[in-house]
Design goal:
The chain contains 18 helices and 2 strands. The protein is mainly α. The protein has a two-stranded parallel ribbon. Helix 11 packs antiparallel against helix 13 and helix 11 runs antiparallel to helix 17.
Length: 532
């Protein structure tokens, strides 16, 4: 059977816990507000992700702490009885009845019953809501209100860190996209047969590490650019500095060998295949050709050997030199052996060029990724009306400096981003372009070059202009001196004799200077159209 006095004490305990929690909440609310205010203030000086959550978190912790203290703080029945007796001035009726309940043998039973009935009567007359009201404290609530007003004000004011967070988000998204691009490049390199298994595995491992770093990048532009630059530098160390010269030399040799052997160019064949077929043709013609033809072929092959030696391909140079000697002497067997050695050297050079091309594709992908990341961060900064970050300026400086530090001059002058400019007139003297590196010629090229004139097949030998000759016209001839400086010497060298010198010089310049990858095809197409 339930004790009536215990039931009343339990009811009083619940009310006291609620009131204690209410009082504790009012007196400590300002602490949570100050913590939230500090978080909101820090969010205006440092880029804190999810600032709203950090602002709300102190209030959540405070609420859980108040609830836990109010519900689980020890509150024995004797303490409840003493508090009720003290606050309602019941003269220790409830606490005495609770104490006599455990000491009935020490006192007369009639006295104990009478005292207990008096305590129950007093407990029945206690109304929890009336006698234990939930009061409000003005000072703690006023302080909490001031703190809340400051928090709302900071939340409404523009936060300069929003632009930084937006930039980090854009950089993180761009880094994930570039990680996907790196993975695509990784698949392309995995399918490349021109690389050795060791080179392929090492390159795949480095690209996989870079893709993982980019995918896990938290939005740090500087870290992403540093990761890209680290791999870019490692790959550039494996590039052959003479790769461009070797590629130009192989293309030049292939064209010269085809022209020397008389084989027409087959578009379906690559340079190595065309050169191999031309070498076989030359070897077969070594014995049947006359002395003059063998002499011309030997001189041309000797020049090609010197050209191969200049590009750093000693094996091909030695093979071409041996072929030149064999053709000059008319030794068919030696010419065939030298041709096979040259074919093997050309195949090795083509394999090395293909390997270097795979590395260059990976480097181009790294440059494209670096540019995409820089543009992602810069676009957000421009939309927010802020200056680019340090990482963006660094990336732009690297991209621009590669072109400027190779000796390419720049004409001084201002600039504008406007679509149209008002007309203006200036006077002065043009200045020489200024550059950081000395301008040195790639090689000694003839200065007097001309294109041999060829008569058009459709024009015939004469030019006819219809009309009538009346005999009334006059012909005047005036001789004068040109005021321009220069020499009147005629051009002496046909351009087809020095075309490959210029072609090699252009390839050497492309190798030593920074040129956007998209412009390299235009340069190669230009020389391809000029090829004699």
């Amino acid at each position: 059977m339930t004790d009536p006095l215990h039931s009343h004490l339990v009811r009083f305990a619940r009310r006291l816990r609620l009131r204690d929690g209410w009082r504790l909440a009012q007196r400590t609310f300002w602490i949570a507000g100050v913590a939230a205010l500090l978080a909101q203030t820090a969010g205006h000086f440092w880029p804190l992700v999810r600032l709203g959550l950090w602002t709300f978190l102190p209030f959540l912790v405070w609420l859980l702490a108040v609830i836990c203290i109010a519900l689980f703080r020890p509150l024995p029945m004797m303490r409840v009885a003493l508090r009720v007796d003290s606050e309602l001035d019941l003269r220790e009726r409830l606490s005495t009845a609770l104490a006599l309940q455990n000491l009935q043998s020490a006192f007369p039973p009639a006295l104990v019953r009478s005292q207990r009935q008096d305590a129950l009567f007093a407990a029945q007359n206690v109304k929890s809501r009336r006698d234990f009201p939930l009061e409000f404290f003005k000072r703690p609530l006023a302080a909490a209100g001031a703190v809340l007003a400051a928090i709302v004000l900071l939340a409404v004011l523009p936060n300069p860190m929003d632009a930084v967070l937006a930039q980090r988000l854009a950089v993180a998204q761009a880094a994930k996209e570039q990680a996907a691009q790196v993975e695509k490049a990784q698949q392309a390199i995995e399918a490349a047969k021109e690389l050795t298994p060791e080179q392929r595995q090492e390159l795949l491992r480095k690209l996989a590490e870079l893709a993982s770093l980019l995918r896990n990048n938290p939005g740090s532009l500087e870290q992403a650019l540093a990761d890209l630059s680290t791999l870019d530098q490692a790959l550039r160390e494996k590039l052959d500095p003479n790769n461009g010269l070797r590629a130009a030399n192989l293309e030049s040799l292939s064209a010269q060998l085809q022209a020397l052997s008389g084989i027409k160019k087959d578009p379906s064949q690559d340079q190595a295949q065309a050169a191999t077929a031309a070498l076989a043709q030359l070897a077969s013609q070594a014995q049947s050709a006359d002395a003059k033809q063998r002499q011309l072929s030997a001189e041309s092959l000797a020049q090609m050997a010197a050209q191969a030696s200049q590009s750093g391909d000693a094996q091909l140079a030695q093979a071409l030199s041996s072929l030149a000697q064999a053709i000059q002497s008319g030794d068919q067997q030696a010419a065939s052996a030298a041709a096979r050695a040259a074919q093997q050297a050309i195949s090795q050079s083509q394999a090395q060029l293909s390997s270097q091309a795979a590395l260059q594709k990976a480097i181009d992908q790294l440059q494209a990724s670096r540019q995409a990341l820089s543009q992602a961060g810069q676009s957000v900064a421009q939309n927010q009306g802020q200056a680019p970050a340090a990482g963006q300026s660094l990336a732009q400086g690297q991209g621009q400096g590669q072109g400027q530090s190779q000796g390419q001059g720049q004409v001084g002058g201002g600039g504008s981003k406007a679509n149209t400019l008002p007309p203006a007139t200036r006077r002065g003297k043009a200045r020489n372009p200024q550059g950081n590196a000395p301008l040195t010629p790639a090689s000694d090229l003839p200065a007097q070059v001309y294109a041999p004139w060829q008569r058009s097949q459709s024009s015939g030998g004469q030019l006819f202009i219809p009309g009538k000759d009346t005999g009334q016209g006059q012909t005047q001839t005036t001789e004068g001196n040109s005021a321009l400086p220069g020499s009147t010497n005629p051009s002496l060298v046909p351009y087809n004799q020095v075309y490959y010198l210029y072609f090699n010089a252009a390839n050497q310049a492309m190798q030593q200077s920074y040129i956007p990858p998209g412009m390299l095809d235009y340069i190669r197409q230009y020389f391809s159209q000029l090829q004699p």
